[in-house]
Amino acid sequence: QVQLVESGGGLVQAGGSLRLSCAASGRTFSRSAMGWFRQAPGKAREFVAAKAWTSGSTSYSDSVKGRFTISRDNAKNTVYLQMNSLKPEDTAVYYCAANLVYGTLGSAGTAWGQGTQVTVSS
Predict the structure, then answer these.
(1) Of 23, 76, 79, 91, which is least packed with CB atoms within 10 Å of its CB?
(2) Beta carbons within 8 Å of 107's beta carbon, 6+ residues apart
(3) How far apart are CA 30 and CA 71, in angstroms?
(4) Residue 53: left (phi > 0), alpha (psi -120 to 50), or beta?
């Protein structure tokens, strides 16, 4: 199992940038698909970005495509989310996620971090 701890959230003005980090521990990190989800107040948790382990391919939600970039450093057991051109609607708690199966990231068998708050002011 993978244990995940997020950091890097905070308050930023619209148009600004933040980089979230997710430090992972556990022997299966390097074989896990990694991703980011977010949950705004009163809304369901939604997918943001994911990076497969086997192919290295990435995917993004339409709402963040072109603004956010997911990357990982297996040597540091860390996955990042670079967020640029932030908008007030990006305000949410951001969660790091890991799953050995890319197709089930976010559902059965997913390990979750505790979340980090991102607030974008207008």
Answers:
(1) 76
(2) none
(3) 13
(4) alpha
Which is nearest to 37 in space by CA: 79, 87, 85? 79
Mean pLDDT for the chain?
92
Percentage above 70 pLDDT, the chain: 98
Alpha-carbon gap, residue 18 to 25, rounded angstroms:
23
Q: State both tokens at 89.
A: 């609607």
Contact (CB, 8 A) for 98 and 33: yes
Confidence of residue 45 (pLDDT cuts 50, 70, 90): very high
Closest Cα partner for 19 from 89, 96, 74? 96
Rounded distance between C-alpha atoms, residue 121 and residue 90, angstroms: 10
